[in-house]
Amino acid sequence: MESGTDFLKIGITLPGEWKENPSHGNAIEAEAARISDFLLNEGIDIFHIRKPDWTKDKIRLLISNISPALHPRLRLHDPFSHLKEFSLGGVQIN
Q: Model pTM greater than 0.90?
């Protein structure tokens, strides 16, 4: 968080899936690139990953396509088993 501010800027994934597009590869790579861009270039402090229709393996692949240096800034809605596997920054509990 930048000094002098009283709030965090939080991004969140769309619950669905990006459509495959030849200009940005497959949907998982596109989503990982979008999350990384928000964290690196758009001033987002935390990014919340919420993909209720995705399998654990698909979410694992998404996270593995994001630089490990950014993992502490990621929050995960589910599955919680990925929290320690990737040293993520936290979970969202409803």
A: no
